[in-house]
Amino acid sequence: MVIIPYHGWQDMTIVVKRDLARERFDELKIRRSIEAAAREAKVPEDRMKALIRDISRNIIHYARKEEQIRSSTIRETVLDKLDVTAPEVSRAWRDYDRRTKGLT
């Protein structure tokens, strides 16, 4: 039997969670989080798609260049951009985090 090493982890950004668990960077999580907050804020579909595209593009580009990134850094970066471009979405995201995770 020949074992071929998998080097995928070496090419992937690792996200360090609040509890110090580690997982592969998943850009879909960012997009889904923005979408959920935008839906909660009742943002029209076309504006929501633009927000998802524009905001996720920046953080995804940044994260892919890093070996590791903290989940809090991702969250803060996304929320900072939402504070400027869509404050109602930022509020919805923060409200959700307060209710479910105890975050501010």
How does the major sheet shape up?
Answer: 3 strands, mixed
Fraction of helical residues? 55-70%
Structural class: mainly alpha
Give the amount of beta strand, in percent.
5-15%
Q: How many DSSP H or I helices?
A: 4
* Low-confidence region ranges: 1-7
What is the residue-averaged pLDDT?
88
Shape: globular
SSE run: EEHHEHH
Widest sheet: strand ordering = 2-1-3
The span between the termini is 52 Å
Tally of separate domains: 1
Write down how many β-strands occur, each being a DSSP E stretch of 2 or more residues.
3
State Rg.
Answer: 16 Å
Structure overview:
- Helix 1 (27-40) packs across helix 4.
- The protein is globular.
- It has 104 residues and is mostly helical.
- The protein is built from 4 helices and 3 strands, in the order ββααβαα.
- The chain starts with 13 loop residues before the first strand and ends with a helix.
- The protein has a 3-stranded mixed sheet.
